[in-house]
Design brief:
9% strand; ubl conjugation pathway; 516 residues; TRIAD_supradom; EC 2.3.2.31; three-stranded antiparallel sheet; disordered N terminus; zinc ion binding; binds zinc ion; mainly alpha
Length: 516
């Protein structure tokens, strides 16, 4: 299930991570027989994906990875022109120790964990053992390796606290809330503050949107926003118009949809040069975009409201989190979580399309809000005097209530996550599609049953009223003529054929009308 909470999480040090990396190196070494330096460089180059490495690497590539050093007698260095002890790599390129060292330090400071030979044309990758030989302090290069490993690994995340050097190691790749030994609480996947039920991607997009829009939400700037920005039709990111060009590119790095400023259609189907959509469609696009912006502002106001409640939790309740009384401590903790979850739910809700699912979502959210308020008042009732038995029971009940509400909300939202896997599109897009497919199905079955009913009726009339064809309107007679059939001719074979043909063509025409 998604949104697992604090399941088996371990907090490990940099040394432990390095140990895991070395284990991977030795595994690859065992399978391939390449030397450990090569193995590490291969792992770094291919995102620690052993399968890809085994598929990709060929001998030519491997020779580019060799980097044993050879020490020669002192002679003039090609780089600094001083007489020094020269160190030559396998590729034949050489320099003095000082030159290699300053080159490597510069590369490491720039954040490169794959370091090529100093010669700009040489593709040789320098191995870790060679780099370690030159460096006084191996930690800085190791932390680059660790960063690259953590980035590629979705079960290990660095604690975002700048003073903390620990990593959270989880059993699953599912994002979850983890609490570090240092006290920092974060998402195990994106290492941001917990944002569930919103997904990592939604949260990221939402923050970016807030950054861009919130300084401009006052009345004066709203007009400016309406005139100069439109929402990306795929991911809802706000995109600012640049110059006179109508070709827009979504500013969300993961989306980058190119769309037409006038009609908000995908350029892939629209064509780059000229917008030939009708005035009506362009006007609709403008209104849609305006509605999307208004929708964001509504959600943002709600978000801010919840966030304020979260930030201004009564001090009495925040103190209770440290309480030694288990019920009180748990209730206060749940209350905190619930306030945070209400805030995050607004983000999740923003990305939903209107429909059945979003209505249900609002119901869940509403019950969470009610339980949160109830828990707050029973906490405030209980706290000053540790209350009577009745007050204590009330607190117990409301605590149970809120746990249930939170669990239900998370489970409900996790169900919606399945939709995110569809081609990696946003929920909104996927819901729209799922909804559209359902609408199409419904109207098709309705059309089909109407058509069937009409056909049966006409056939029945033909069977029971032999003179029925006389009543056929003139245009159908004309239509019959184009098919080479005279409807006024009394042979039954002729009009049965005609009726059959008209039924088939009415079906075809009706069907294309429906989907077009
Ligand atoms: Zn030199
Ligand atoms: Zn070289
Ligand atoms: Zn920490
Ligand atoms: Zn996350
Ligand atoms: Zn986009
Ligand atoms: Zn257009």
């Amino acid at each position: 299930m998604a949104f697992v909470k604090d399941s088996d999480v371990q907090f490990i040090t940099q040394k432990d991570v390095m140990f895991i990396i070395n284990f991977k190196v030795s595994q690859l070494h065992k399978t391939t027989g390449f030397d450990p330096d090569q193995c590490l460089n291969l792992l770094l180059k291919f995102g620690f994906n052993k399968k890809v490495i085994l598929k990709t690497c060929n001998e030519q590539f491997l020779t580019a990875l060799q980097s044993k050093t050879e020490q020669d007698e002192p002679e003039e260095c090609y780089v600094c022109c001083l007489d020094n002890q020269i160190i030559r790599l396998d590729c034949g390129h050489s320099a003095c120790r000082n030159c290699w060292k300053s080159y490597l330090i510069r590369k490491i400071e720039d954040g490169n964990c794959l370091i090529e030979c100093m010669d700009p044309k040489c593709k040789l990758l320098i191995g870790k053992s060679v780099i370690d030989e030159f460096m006084d302090d191996v930690a800085s290069y190791e932390s680059l390796i660790i960063n690259s490993f953590v980035k590629a690994n979705n079960t290990i995340t660095k604690c975002p606290d700048s003073n903390c050097l620990l990593f959270a190691k989880t059993n699953t790749a599912e994002p979850q809330t983890v609490t570090c030994t240092c006290g920092r609480i974060f998402c195990s996947s994106c290492s941001q503050d917990p944002h569930f039920p919103a997904t990592c991607r939604q949260q990221q997009l939402w923050s970016k949107k807030c950054e861009l829009l919130t300084p401009k939400i006052d009345d004066d700037s709203q007009q400016w926003l309406l005139e100069h920005t439109k929402e990306c039709p795929r991911c809802l990111m706000t995109v600012e118009k640049q110059g006179g060009c109508t070709l827009m590119t979504c500013s969300n790095k993961k989306c980058r949809l190119k769309f037409c400023w006038l009609c908000r259609s995908d350029i892939a189907t629209h064509g780059i040069y000229y917008c030939n959509s009708s005035q009506l469609k362009a006007e609709k696009a403008r209104l849609d975009s305006r509605a999307d912006l208004a929708n964001f502002i509504t959600h943002y106001n709600r978000f801010e409201h919840y966030q304020n409640s979260y930030k201004n939790i009564p001090p009495m309740i925040s103190d209770a989190i440290e309480s030694s009384e288990p019920l009180l401590q748990k209730a206060a903790y749940s209350y905190f979580n619930a306030r945070k979850m209400l805030t995050n739910s607004v983000v999740f809700g923003f990305f939903l399309c209107n429909g059945e699912y979003s209505d249900k979502f609002k119901d869940f959210l509403h019950s969470l809000e009610i339980s949160t308020d109830q828990l707050e008042s029973s906490l405030l009732n209980y706290l000053p005097s540790q209350g009577s038995k009745r007050v204590r029971f009330e607190l117990f009940e409301h605590h149970q209530d809120i746990e249930k509400c939170q669990k239900e909300l998370l489970e409900f939202c996790a169900k919606g996550q399945e939709f995110e896997d569809l081609n990696g599109q946003s929920y909104r897009d996927a819901w729209k599609k799922a909804h559209a497919a359902r609408v199409n199905n419904d109207s098709f079955s309705q059309f089909f049953s109407n058509w069937l009913f009409a056909s049966v009726l006409i056939l029945a009339l033909l069977v029971f009223l032999p003179d029925f064809h006389i009543w056929l309107p003139d245009f159908s007679v004309a239509y019959g003529k184009t098919l080479g059939i005279d409807l006024r001719d009394d042979t039954s074979q002729s009009y049965l054929r005609t009726v059959f043909l008209s039924l088939v063509s009415s079906f075809v025409v009706g069907f294309f009308d429906l989907i077009g």
